[in-house]
Amino acid sequence: MPVTQFSASDPYAYLNGFGSYHESEAVGGALPLGQNSPQKPAYGLYVEKLSGTAFTAPRHENQQTWLYRILPAAAHGNFQALDADSYHTQMTSEKENLQYIPNQLRWNPFDLDESVDWVHGLHLVAGAGDPTMKSGLGILLYAAGRDMGNEAFYSADGDFLIVPQHGVLDIQTELGKLLVQPNEICVIPRGIRYRVSLPSGPVKGYICELYQGHFQLPELGPMGSNGLANARDFQAPVAAFVDDEQPSEYTIISKFNNALFSARQDHTPFDVVAWHGNYYPYKYDLGRFNTIGSISFDHPDPSIFTVLTGPSDHPGTAIADFVIFPPRWLVAEGTFRPPWYHRNVMSEFMGLIAGNYDAKVGGGFQPAGASLHNIMSAHGPDANAHERASNVELRPQKVGTGSMAFMFESSLMIGVSEWGLKTCQKVQENYNEESWRPLKRSFKNPET
Question: Is the dihedral of CA 359, 361, 367, 369 positive or negative?
């Protein structure tokens, strides 16, 4: 594709296409022609390769980006472990104390926290696996009210899939800027450094951190070549850099095995003048999702709403699927239209960005709240939703208007952190009692 040159009047310009090779330069001529690592790059820049996969990964899986920057990322002091008491996350101890329980769980809306920045506003609520073995996932919540300072954060553990629920994130990455708001998502791949500012005040939302592999578009199979999330609708930032000729102190914060480390350097980390490759941060507007559904009878599996998937080594089985339930038409005839009651080999962590989820009508599942139905834990519509759906006139119906629910679905058994179970004080103690115990017996035995 043609080289994109950065315009100072448009810091949020984007390149389109998921998984595509992109190239972008903030200064004309900064990208070399004909080779990746010339002996003397233009303008005295340094060459740095950022690899998201092993060098020898198959061509269709290989992800890498070449950076042309003022100083290489290695130019910093030693990393030092941050005292767990000095930040709110305490993710290491939380990971080691995950509790695996079969109970259905639901949380009331999580609070804003105006006293902390992005890094200090991360909380591990649930997860499975081990980032040191590149296996599994973590589910985090974020709540922040302050801009990061002269800092850059990155996770060595996995890719951050960020789902804003409230407020706008201005994300300055090494490769350019992303402006992300509710009803959009953004993915920051493992290792990419970034800084978060809050142009519209406090923020909160959800994160799925994928420890193994990377998120990708799901296969469409018999559906054909179109539908769900289209590659063209994903956006990557164009190159933008800061040129601080005078030394200024920055802090690099690393999430490494769910612990935080910091290092000092005397220059900005946001000095990439040009880049090319297929390993970069990106964002997606959930409103562009092309919903597919049944036009005859029966309720299809929720997999038809998959936006991104983090596959396991077993085909068709995901470490993490990101699934949404957007506004859509229901037209199936003779059908119980909400999700049926089910027990699943997959764990389901649900969140609500806005509005009301059509399978939960009692008000217990609210925006900024969440629920977890672990492997083989029975769940489905609450009693009121079942009663209404069983008796409603079945005509074409638009559901979900003004609403957006989502699900992090995983083949792994999900453990819940001490923060998620107790510290946050958001667990609904009577979730099961209020949702399913009121279901009434209506069986009539024809033989009696």
Answer: negative
